[in-house]
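Sequence design from tokenized structure. All designs in this work follow the same two-part layout: the structure record, then the generated sequence. An example of the structure record is given first.
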């Protein structure tokens, strides 16, 4: 039998809930209508009847849980599920049963009086809850219900800015965070804010620092000025945003920046860190769990525009140091992929000396290894192709202080800027294409066989990046680079080493001097960005798993052609083995022998026959290879052979954050180098500073946030860190959200 349909009529002044139910409140009574029928009524104060009727309406399919969790009732979904479970297990009578063993009353009159007294003294709700050993959410609800004397709360509001909360210890916070697990979750001590965010009543959580001591990794706050100076938060609201929720885009970016500085390589690393303690560093009750962090990162990458953010950052970094932006170092790095989701082509990995699956990242850095941007390619024709199609157009828009077209026309040797790269791109085609756009290039010369006379070399003082200098034996000539009857003029500089080896450098930027060319080329060896970022920033790691199809028009190597190439190579190797065996049979004849023995003649004949057979196979395979295209479109391949790529936007977003973190660390190392002898020592000490514990003390009256770092291992390091903290204090940096002026010191 079909269910009888209700006439969709509603009384005047009713609040409609769902498709068929409405509620009317008049004269202290609440009436429930199903269609036009008066279904049930109870008094305003009868909460038991309210729970019963709402559960009954859900059980009878008149309402859904979603109808009650939304406006106007806004009942939490978990509460509704608990009511339904109670109805099905204990029946409708359970809603009206008064249990003998009632739950323990937490807010007893004595406890309420104690809380009111402490609140009247000007202590905050969080501090009072900690002292009387109750949950902060319980106390806030009691204040909201009026259980705590109103005058105490009012007095608290006027006095809380005049007193400083006593600092909580790590053991106290650990106990409170563990107690919160019985409610919303571990360290979720701001239950009211989380509920407001879940119901859409709040845009995001408010950043609020607490007075705490012995906070692990509090030293990360010393890196906040450098992170902000390098643009970590520059894209918030413009290129990056999140929908309403407890964690805002600013919180997630700060989390990722601190994770990078603290060497927490991936979101899974958050599982090994107390969430409440890390949250205190950001100004929240806790950091998001791994699943939430991944979700927020994915939203930032997909709903925002990380590419525009990266371009804007690159331009601002170049504008900040236009002299170094005039010399750009380009190098490739293979990001090896061991997963099974993506079908990535193989490429040669020099550090492994193997062909492995992966993507190629082309990094553009300055002379000291600070990255400007990165271009990732799942399928690539090589660095030269990426330079012309992807990197050069971006640099023409971003590099500051380029000469005007009038200045370029007036001086045929004037260049816009200079690119420095390895001998892989040392060829006429690329250098001429770059110079057509008046871009200079510095690289090594390939296949150098001649040697210049030693008399041409002179000892020169060559500046080294960082302010130092060294001496080299250098010589200079004007030369050219040719191919297929065409040539381009270059300046060639050679360095004579102590062993007599001559290293040849060529450049199309012929206005540069000998020492400048040598200094800029050999500065390439000073760059350790890849190895350092692989070890400390996990640039090869994935922050989100997933694949995306490549455009069908992309050309890739034909798998059939590749297999033929492999077969031909195997036959050529076999041919060499037969030829070597034939040579041994020929040399085996003794000098006194006039003729070979019948056995030797037979072996030679067999070997010659094998050689002829292999040569015939090679010729046939080479003819077949000519009929097969070397490259084909991706959409012409079978589905299982079509290459795919990793999610590009998420990877670009993660790489941008890691670049910001590396540049921030490098900036702090530059400050610390004034007080230490070696850069490696300064970098190691900065890493130690980031993971150091410390005390955090906010002062609402003076609008300051004091961070006291625990001491280092040695007095010398204490002295260097104290000087670094004084430099940071001199910046007058204020927290980007709270506006509190940040002060740093050692305990």
């Amino acid at each position: 039998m079909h269910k009888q349909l209700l006439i969709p009529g509603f009384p005047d002044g009713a609040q409609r809930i769902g498709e068929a139910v409405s509620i009317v409140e008049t004269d202290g009574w609440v009436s429930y209508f199903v269609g036009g029928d008066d279904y049930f009524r109870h008094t305003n104060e009868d909460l038991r009847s309210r729970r019963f009727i709402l559960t009954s309406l859900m059980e009878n399919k008149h309402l859904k849980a979603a109808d009650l969790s939304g406006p106007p009732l806004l009942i939490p979904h978990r509460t509704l599920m608990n009511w339904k479970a109670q109805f099905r297990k204990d029946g409708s009578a359970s809603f009206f049963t008064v249990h003998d063993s009632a739950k323990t009353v937490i807010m007893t009159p004595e406890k309420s009086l104690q809380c009111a007294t402490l609140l009247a003294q000007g202590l905050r709700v969080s501090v009072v809850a900690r002292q009387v050993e109750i949950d902060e959410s319980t106390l806030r609800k009691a204040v909201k219900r009026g259980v705590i004397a109103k005058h105490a709360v009012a007095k608290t509001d006027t006095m809380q800015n005049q007193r400083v909360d006593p600092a909580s210890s790590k053991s106290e916070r650990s106990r409170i965070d563990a107690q919160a697990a019985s409610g919303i979750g571990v360290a979720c001590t701001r239950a009211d804010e989380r509920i407001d965010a879940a119901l859409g009543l709040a845009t995001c959580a408010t950043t609020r620092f607490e007075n705490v001591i012995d906070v692990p990794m509090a030293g990360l706050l010393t890196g906040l000025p450098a992170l902000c100076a390098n643009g970590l938060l520059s894209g918030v609201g413009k290129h990056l945003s999140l929908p309403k929720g407890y964690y805002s885009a600013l919180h997630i970016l700060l989390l990722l920046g601190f994770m990078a500085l603290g060497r927490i390589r991936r979101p899974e690393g958050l599982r090994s860190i107390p969430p409440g303690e890390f949250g205190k560093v950001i100004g929240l009750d806790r950091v998001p769990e791994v699943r939430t962090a991944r979700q927020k990162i994915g939203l930032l990458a997909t709903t925002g525009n990380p590419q525009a953010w990266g371009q804007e950052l690159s331009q601002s970094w170049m504008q900040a140091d236009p002299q170094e932006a005039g010399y750009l170092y380009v190098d490739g790095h293979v990001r090896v992929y061991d997963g099974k989701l993506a079908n990535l082509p193989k490429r040669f990995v020099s550090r492994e000396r193997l062909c492995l699956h992966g993507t190629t990242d082309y990094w553009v850095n300055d002379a000291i290894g600070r990255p400007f941007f990165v271009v990732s390619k799942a399928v690539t024709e090589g660095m030269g192709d990426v330079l012309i199609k992807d990197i050069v157009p971006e640099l023409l828009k971003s590099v500051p202080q380029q000469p005007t077209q009038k200045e370029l026309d007036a001086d045929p040797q004037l260049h816009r800027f200079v690119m420095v790269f390895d001998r892989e791109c040392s060829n006429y085609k690329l250098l001429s294409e770059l110079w057509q756009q008046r871009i200079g290039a510095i690289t090594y010369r390939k296949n150098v066989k001649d040697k210049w006379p030693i008399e041409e070399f002179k000892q020169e003082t060559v500046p080294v990046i960082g302010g130092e200098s060294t001496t080299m034996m250098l010589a200079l000539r004007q030369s050219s680079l040719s191919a297929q009857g065409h040539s381009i003029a270059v300046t060639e500089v050679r360095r004579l080493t102590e062993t007599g080896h001559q290293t040849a450098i060529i450049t199309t930027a012929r206005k540069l001097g000998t020492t400048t060319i040598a200094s800029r080329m050999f500065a390439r060896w000073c760059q350790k960005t890849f190895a350092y970022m692989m070890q400390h920033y996990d640039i090869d790691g994935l922050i989100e798993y997933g694949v995306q199809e490549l455009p069908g028009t992309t050309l890739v190597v034909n798998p059939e052609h590749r297999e033929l190439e492999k077969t031909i190579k195997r036959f050529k190797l076999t041919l060499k083995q037969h030829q070597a065996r034939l040579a041994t049979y020929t040399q085996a004849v003794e000098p006194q022998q006039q003729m070979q023995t019948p056995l030797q003649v037979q072996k030679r004949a067999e070997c010659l026959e094998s050689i002829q057979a292999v040569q015939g196979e090679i010729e046939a395979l080479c003819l077949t290879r000519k009929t097969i295209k070397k490259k084909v479109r991706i959409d012409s391949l079978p589905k299982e052979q079509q290459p795919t790529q990793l999610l590009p936007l998420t990877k670009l977003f993660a790489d941008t954050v890691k670049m910001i973190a590396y540049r921030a660390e490098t900036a702090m190392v530059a400050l610390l180098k004034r007080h230490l002898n070696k850069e490696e020592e300064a970098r190691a000490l900065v890493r130690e500073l980031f993971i150091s514990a410390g005390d955090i003390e906010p002062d609402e009256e003076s609008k300051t946030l004091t961070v006291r770092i625990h001491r280092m291992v040695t007095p010398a390091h204490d002295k260097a860190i104290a000087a670094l903290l004084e430099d940071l204090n001199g910046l007058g940096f204020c927290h980007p959200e709270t506006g509190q002026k940040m002060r740093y010191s050692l305990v």
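Residues 1-7, 150-164 have pLDDT under 50 and may be disordered. We note this feature because it recurs in several other targets discussed in the main text.
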